Amino acid sequence: MDTSHYWSSRPLSELTGSEHHWLFLPGALTPRLKAMGDYSIEVVEQSHGPLNPEEAQALNVPPMTIGWVREVVMKLDGEACVTARSLTSMPALNGDWADLNGYGRRPLAEILYTSDQTLREPFQCALLSPGAPLAALSYRYAPQAKRLLARRSRFTRNGSALLVSECFLPAFWARVEYAQALKSA
Predict the structure, then answer these.
(1) pTM of the model
(2) 12 contacts: CB under 8 Å, gap ≥ 6
(3) Using one digit for the tens of pLDDT, what is the confidence trace for 69-120?
(4) Rounded to an integer, what distance in angstroms lies between the CA atom of residue 12 and that of residue 125?
(5) pLDDT at residue 164 in the model
(6) What are phi and psi of 164, to 5 degrees?
(7) CB-based contacts of 174: which residues, under 8 Å, 6+ apart?
(8) 17-184: what fold?
(9) C-alpha dihedral (111, 117, 121, 125), degrees to nearest 10
């Protein structure tokens, strides 16, 4: 199964204005989602395992490095709208990112945007390939999705990296489109 896709720091040519806006919107996503409806987060999985080559490369660690992986689904009014996959290496988890141990159901934004030691690199976006780990998670909640748009960013603390990737599901884009139609009416 194809797991390759191209992460770009430039907007993809096929993006609509709304897609471009949301994929490159700076700051934490959680407060923006909370403004759109009754927000909830569900931890799908939090485990340790080998990072795939693309994830390892993004973290600047050797392929098959054992890492910490957290997958969540964010819901609005009970409807799955965004999936996220966050990961870091075990040395980083036991060092600079130790506060992620047992993190539970809280949004990562609570620690990512409150520390002066945490630096965020620019967003990248991609049209996910079906075999990508984030796509596999997303298809569980949107099995009929024709395309999956995602963004990711690397956060660093003292050189230790945490990669956070978010996929916007069709239900999210339907909400955005509906809100825009209401504004135009």
Answers:
(1) 0.92
(2) 125, 126, 127
(3) 999 999 999 999 999 999 999 999 999 999 898 787 888 888 888 888 899 9
(4) 8
(5) 96
(6) -120, 120
(7) none
(8) Chorismate lyase (3.40.1410)
(9) -10
